[in-house]
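Holo prediction. Input below; ligand is zinc ion.
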Amino acid sequence: MTDLVLVNANVLTMDPDPAARPRASAVAIAGGRITALDEVPPGATRVADLHGATVLPGFHDAHNHMVGFGMSLSEVDISSPPIASLDELYAAIARRAGTTAPGDWVIGSGYDQNKLGAHPDRDALDRAAPGRRVWLRHTSGHMCVVNTPVLAALGVDSAATEVPGGRVVTDAGGRPTGLLEERAQLLVGSLVYPYPLAELADAIARASAEYLKEGITSCTEAGIGGGWVAHSPAELAAYAAARDQGRLGVRVDLMTAGEVLHPLGAHPGDNLVAALDLGIRTGFGDDWIRLGPVKIFADGSLVGRTAAVHDPYAGSDGSGYLQADAADLQAAIIAAHRSGWQVATHAIGDRAIDVVLDAYDRALAEYPRPDPRHRIEHFAVVQPRQVARAAELGVVPVPQGRFATELGDGMLAAVGPARGEWLYRQRSLLEAGMVLPGSSDRPVVSGAPLLGIADMVNRRTASGAPFNPGEAITAHQALRAWTWGSAYASRQEHVKGSIAPGMLADLVILSEDPTAVSPDRIAGLEVLATIVGGHPRHDAGALDGLG
Ligand SMILES: [Zn+2]
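Structure of the complex:
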């Protein structure tokens, strides 16, 4: 019994099989799966004429922070735009403070000191929000600024304290400025974590509703359960709750924060040296909620200049830092590999990338395993020799296309002209034979896939400067990244990421074909409908209420 047939469609299948058809004009769906291409099964009653609209596999964001994004929707938006100066930022904080009880939190996210001229300052925040606790997250997520009541509650309002893998920044007189870098953010976490699961489920529902409007049908959450990216040790239960309530609209792959792995006491021959209880690991779950890789942080942020690079940042003698001792990082990566995990390591600077490639190399030599598909998240400043080595090790690099527009100017300034051609590679990764996924790192930047796809093609910064333009790719390659590439990165390409009989019926319907319009129009194309598991979950009229 066929559930739905889309006809008169421009279907781009993204099927990697050379024997398969690259395009089709009709898709038949039954039982949540695609059953046929280019035919209308007899007896089909629900037939939607798409009048030539374009159908693609649903978009899959291979690296985003869904809970963080959902929570940011209820926080003060301090990103630029709309905030153009520090004065405007303080005014926005003052407005929110006016509706916040004394002692409560004013939380904002998305500021970028490259656009504001400086980080916000604790004293100005105290004046803007007297008696309130203020916590402002940097757009990178790798640092934040807090005001005096928060510093006082942490016992660091008059003198800094040493934090391994992070920094409590002080002024020339040794007084903390309110800026907390990297793992020093865990200090604030101690005041607000853990969040109640109901609040997290609400955030997931809010994010999910946005994602469906943008054509997203799957996403990979880049770290839950521990460390500074997490919101609760029981974060997976929030996803399960959202699903039970019918509010999880997209399929999720959840990365486990490396911090929560532990020895299990299983048989020594099982090699479970870094595990979760019951031995569950990458791949556990179903088509809706599934455990992805383990997430390990090697370094920090490029625009924040905390990422570990070999040569110092432009105009400075700083070269960033690793989030842990190199030997400890490598031991954690090897232990996770040994215990059967797919490993996704955040590594931005070329120095951090070397540490991670060495660890993957050793892990594979000491504990060989077919097709581990270890990932490097961001893979931002990459020397030519590192491209070749990553390809040889079967690494899946996970760069973010949208960073070009929203963070590109700050990145170019951070690395200087000599390293501009190493930034956020795409084309050279494909040419080296690697699979390229599509991802946003939302809420770090806007997460709508069409924005990311447009940026992968156009490669321009907000100021209009070319952003390492030699690494631009075609619209078709960018679409393939956001569909099949992301499915591959999450070891799911056998069930999603292309349109073929037997695959999950996860589809996005676009007003026009991104491969046929001029590159500057891609970002403005309309998402007409989003179908997940055969059910229309967003419909701007394309399906005429057939859902
Ligand atoms: Zn991230």
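The two ends are 16 Å apart (CA to CA). That is the main takeaway for now.
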